[in-house]
TrEMBL record, chains A, B:
InterPro entries assigned to the protein according to its UniProt record, in alphabetical order: Aldolase_TIM (IPR013785), NAPRTase_N (IPR040727), Nic_PRibTrfase-Fam (IPR007229), Nic_PRibTrfase_pncB (IPR006405), Nicotinate_pribotase-like_C (IPR036068)
Protein's UniProt keywords contain Electron transport: no
Family listed: Belongs to the NAPRTase family.
Full protein name: Nicotinate phosphoribosyltransferase
Reaction catalysis annotation: 5-phospho-alpha-D-ribose 1-diphosphate + nicotinate + ATP + H2O = nicotinate beta-D-ribonucleotide + ADP + phosphate + diphosphate
First-level EC class: ligase
């Protein structure tokens, strides 16, 4: 398996480069803008995620012998193209919203400025990363909000592509998840990993008590015991019998969770395990989490709905040429309109610090009190501006997200479908 | 970035191994079964995909120094566990449905037989791969059917994780897609790649005619010109003017496609370009493809809806311990029931060769005329049974899928939500 990134690309980018090299337009100075025409699924905001991963990929976006041989095999044999690719290293500038920032329809979340041939080559990789990671982070932010202060754990690896799982764990952590089940996400990004046992471990043993004893012998009494393999009531009794009242937590993974959790809390308290926490993990999404608000639950594990974006597995970001040689350009036929020209963007806030509008302009925006500029330099002359590690980039994105979301108006947190929480004003 | 696969795993698998090593149950001979309790989204069948990719990963599922260091950093410091992992290489057997096979609720699509500790370790990787790839293949099969004999091209890389994109292209090809835009999928799996130009290429140029001339000069007159950047009518006239009546194809990427395609066909014919094909690519899914049945369209490009599984981004396959030391086991509390014991499975057919039932049994199934056994050996003693290359595995899966789908009853192809096309009988 190649570890390079250059072939994670749509073929048409290379045929466009070939044709542009031949007719002399490849060097035209170009600006490509990444934005979403609308928020998916009636969402009220979206969360930008993936920028840090894009910066990890950029140095690996090279056409070595293996890549060039693959292109030849696929019929891309144009000598001028192959020579150009062999020498290619991105030399342009990238600016954009800080990772973790919120975005709205028309927000210019990333702008790539480079000669046309260099900028067009990055289209697929940029969109793959930002569309995927932003979809997950946008769903995750709603789940974290629905959970209020209770911790949420990401455990969806098994419901998405094996590498997408690592990126999903990262996007969830960015949006406030407390931990992940994914060990590789722990390694790459320093996200705390969590998990203790599955039903298989209980079924492996001759009886539930043996399984619980084995787990406690190895993981300690502070572990989480899964109590719903046979009978939840009996499972809880056995758990406390084996672990004593200092048992860390029980996990419920099936059944009607509000009822079960309430009953489990009563039983644990009766058995003296008053500090034993209750974790729930069965097919949760932001709505189910909100529905458990009144239940005595101490933490949530979320899988499928997190890694599939809870109904919006992609956020519809597009990558459009908006300027070349200083001339604004845009598609003009029916449907799918864009606005030409390079943009600046600020988020406007009222006197209380609540966000009121996204101001996007082709020129400078006259500064008002409470305006926060949204664009930051990411890459200059092909080099990332920051030398932060992947772990540091994630930590910074998580902190930035926390600040940005604190300014959202209250109605942004409604789970129902609706309009964008703030209006995008084009000046 | 690690190229190994061992950390693409949920933490709880390792804590279970640690506890089972400590209490002596790690070696209990176990069978884990992969199956779906129901088909997602009212689908009438699902397509198994990913088995070939799992076989690619299996030899890389090893705990080297880098992996073991990562585990220590995450607090997994149990010496017995780490020693065992350092020596780990899967030694068990895997059997399952042939890749490309159809499956239904309860179909035992994969069974892993190994000592508990070895089998439990593979859970996340097996499910990640099979859930993702099968979701894409299941959506792709419906799109191919809706397109009848017209070719469908996969072009969704930008709407999913950058590595998931490669797997999605593979799953689509398995289910009958003609080509992909993804260059890495071309390299790894030998899938034909396709694509010529985007709106950016037209906007880069001073006018549409210059862009078309540049493309034809490099890609030849048989290329596909994208004609909807400004005005479709004028775009088509300019295309034929520049390319002549031998122009290969035009592409429409916006607007009301049935109307536009009909108009474009008339105009092309008037201009003498009677053999120029019409490709359409705007937000298509199986329903939109079906809606274009009567339109003069020669090929479809599908992006977002393909790579997101067209409403079902995962297929809900689970990995359950069904037997240990020869004893059938199963979870018994409310919800999420499983059936214990190792299974055999055959597909039953009527005299005309149409599939009528999926027969799943814990014992041998008494053979009837028209029964086709569904389980094949994949791995024996830790070694893949076949030494086929990734490209050969995909070709075999595509061929198998084509044969299996030919036996489906006609109602399986209804696009509306409904019941499983054949009943699963448990004997």
């Amino acid at each position: 398996m190649s570890t390079g990134s250059a072939l994670l690309t749509d073929r048409y980018e290379l045929t466009m480069v070939a044709a542009a090299l031949a007719d002399g337009t490849a060097d035209r100075e170009s600006s490509f803008e990444v934005f979403a025409r609308r928020l998916p699924h009636g969402r009220r905001f979206a969360v930008l995620a993936g920028t840090g991963r894009l910066l990890e990929h950029l140095p690996r976006f090279r056409f070595g012998d293996e890549e060039l041989d693959a292109l030849r095999e696929q019929g891309l044999t144009d000598a001028r193209l192959l020579d150009w690719l062999a020498d290619f290293a991105f030399s342009g500038d990238i600016e954009g919203y800080a990772e973790g920032e919120l975005f709205f329809p028309g927000s210019p979340v990333l702008t790539v400025r480079a000669p046309f041939a260099e900028g067009v080559l990055l289209e697929t990789l940029v969109l793959s990363i930002l569309n995927h990671d932003s979809a997950i982070a946008s769903a995750a932010a709603r789940m974290v909000a629905a959970a209020c202060e209770r911790p949420v754990i990401e455990m969806g690896s098994r419901r998405t592509h094996e590498q997408a799982a690592v990126a999903a764990a990262r996007a969830a952590a960015l949006a406030g998840f407390a931990a992940t089940s994914n060990l590789e996400a722990g390694r790459r990004y320093g996200i705390p990993t969590a998990g203790t046992s599955a039903h298989a471990f209980t079924l492996l043993h001759d009886d539930e008590a043996s399984a619980f004893r084995a787990q406690i012998a190895t993981l300690g009494v502070d572990t989480t015991l899964l109590v719903d393999t046979y009978d939840v009531d009996q499972g809880i009794r056995t758990a406390v019998e084996v672990a004593g009242p200092e048992l860390g937590a029980i996990r419920l993974d099936s059944g009607d969770l509000p009822t079960l959790a309430t009953h489990a809390r009563q039983l644990l308290d009766e058995l003296g395990a008053t500090k034993t926490r209750i974790l729930v993990t069965s097919d949760l999404d932001e709505y189910a989490i909100a529905g458990l608000m009144a239940a005595p639950v101490d933490g949530y594990g979320v899988g499928t709905s997190l890694v599939t974006g809870s109904g919006a597995p992609t956020v519809g970001l597009v990558y459009k040429l908006v300027e070349r040689d200083g001339v604004p350009v845009a598609k003009r036929s029916e449907g799918k309109h864009s606005v030409g020209g390079r943009k600046t963007a600020v988020r406007r806030h009222d006197a209380s610090g609540t966000a009121t509008a996204e101001v996007v302009s082709s020129g400078p925006v006259p500064a008002q009190d409470g305006d926060r500029p949204l664009l930051v330099d990411l890459v200059r002359g092909g080099q990332p501006v920051s030398d932060a590690s992947p772990r540091e980039l994630l930590a910074a994105a998580r902190a930035h997200h926390e600040r940005a979301r604190a300014a959202l108006p209250a109605e942004a947190w409604a789970l129902s479908r609706g309009e964008s929480a703030i209006e995008t004003m084009t000046e």
